[in-house]
Amino acid sequence: MSSADAPARRAALPLLAAILASLAVVCAPAAGAAEQPRASLPQIERQVMCVTCKIPLNVAESPQADRERAYIQSLIDRGRSEAQIKHALVGQYGAAVLGLPAEHGIGLAAYLVPLAAVLTLAALLVVLLPRWRRRSRAAAPGEPPAPLPPADAARLESDLARFD
Amino acid sequence: MASMKVLALAGVLGLAAVLSGCSGQGNSSGVSQTNYVTGKGVQTSYPLGHRKTAPVISGKELGGQPLSLSTYAGKVVVLNFWASWCVPCATEAPMLQRAEPTLRRYGATVLGVTYKDATPDSEEFVRRYHLTYPNLRDGTGSFAGNYGTDQLPESFIVDRYGHVVMLRRGEISQQFVDRAIELARSR
Q1: Cα–Cα distance between B95 and B84 in angstroms, integer?
Q2: Which of chain A's residues have a Cβ under 8 Å away from the Cβ of B19?
Q3: B residues 23-42 closer than 8 Å to A (CB)
Q4: pLDDT at A29 exceeding the cut of 60
Q5: pTM for the complete prediction?
């Protein structure tokens, strides 16, 4: 290779670096997307509701449920992720499509009652556990059991010897 | 001691019951899943003095522009709840479209409201039946709920004063359309 090629090579290096950098930028999101599992209809059907029949979509048999499935499938075909599809469904049918209780009114009870139950149980344990520990310590045996009479001890020894 | 154990056990069982109740899905077996009225519709006329004010409807058109029933204050409105998945809605849509020019001539209109229908499906329905009247989205069914509508199709004639004159549950009839035109013509 002649020394006349050296300037040309030096000029080509930044260009090559720029091309590689652009390829990295273009390919990185595609590689990231490829890592995400593809959304599937049965998977989403289990997680959303048929909005007119008010039962999970995977067990619903109604014209509206069929349209809802077709809508989900169209989004899957367009490469949307599960989260994007759920977001689109909420945009079309409201939050009820996710089958979650409303965050106001009576629906709020669905969130508050379990929380209150957990807190009550935790409070009960905090109060009761130390008491139980204290009682079990108080009831602990203070003296070892009395030794067996010599006759009984000999009989026990002979019985145990039979099992050796 | 024993009473405390019973108390704790009751707490644990109660918590388990609450949690299992939360994760359970309602079973509505036996409820009609089609959500549309088949066969002949049922019509109710409300005489003067017994007409209720039409509940507010305010949202977005299929195209995304804001629209509300109050836009048509002072006009007769045929309010029609429909969805692309509703078979009788498809049957009555051409009849409503045929009535639209006549109604418009008398300052009245048809106002469609899509019920729990995906926008692309509704738009396809509008294209297929060449509907020229405005259609407002009700994805959550909240407007329909205010009108007591949970099955389709359902149509209402709202007079110039914003009162419901007539209700049709199920596919509309020519008589229903004629009543709307008659109301629009009368001054």
Answers
A1: 16
A2: 114, 117
A3: 25-28, 31, 33-36
A4: no
A5: 0.66
- Are residues B82 and B115 in contact, defined by beta-carbon separation less than 8 angstroms? yes
Q: Which of B25, B33, B117 is opposite residue A99, by nearest beta carbon? A: B25
Q: Is A75 on the interface with B (CB under 8 A)?
A: no
Q: DSSP secondary-structure letter at B57?
A: -
- Please, is A124 exposed, middle or buried when counting C-beta atoms within 10 Å of its C-beta (0-12, 13-18, 19+)? middle
Residue in A with minimal Cα distance to B2: A132
Q: Above 90 in pLDDT, residue A5?
A: no
Provide the shortest C-alpha distance from residue A73 to chain B (in Å): 13
> What residues form DSSP beta bridges with A55?
A50
pLDDT in tens, A8-18: 566 666 666 66
Would you call B19 an interface residue with chain A, using a CB distance cutoff of 8 Å?
yes
DSSP letter for B43, please. E
**Tokens 């804001």 found at:** B66
Measured CA to CA, the distance from residue B145 to residue B95 in angstroms comes to 25
Whole-number pLDDT of residue A163: 85
Set of chain A residues whose Cβ sits within 8 Å of the Cβ of B31:
53-54
Q: Does A92 lie at the interface with B, CB-CB under 8 angstroms?
A: yes
The answer to whether residue B85 neighbours chain A at the CB level (below 8 Å) is yes
Average pLDDT for residues B17-35, to the nearest whole number? Answer: 46
Name the pairing type of β-strands B135-138 and A55-56. unpaired
- Quote the crossing angle between the two packed helices A63-77 and B119-128, to the nearest 10°: 110
Q: Which of B8, B11, B140 sits opposite A96 (nearest CB)?
A: B140
Q: Does A132 touch chain B (CB under 8 A)?
A: yes
Residue A50, chain B, CB below 8 Å: the answer is yes
What is the rounded average pLDDT of the residues A77-85?
Answer: 95
For residue B26, is pLDDT > 90?
A: no
Q: Which uninterrupted H or E stretch holds B76?
A: none
At residue B96, does pLDDT exceed 60? yes
Give me the pLDDT at residue B87, please: 93
Stronger pLDDT, B99 or A136, i.e. the higher one:
B99
Instruction: Enumerate the β-bridge partners of residue B138.
Output: B115
Instruction: Enter the ipTM.
Output: 0.74
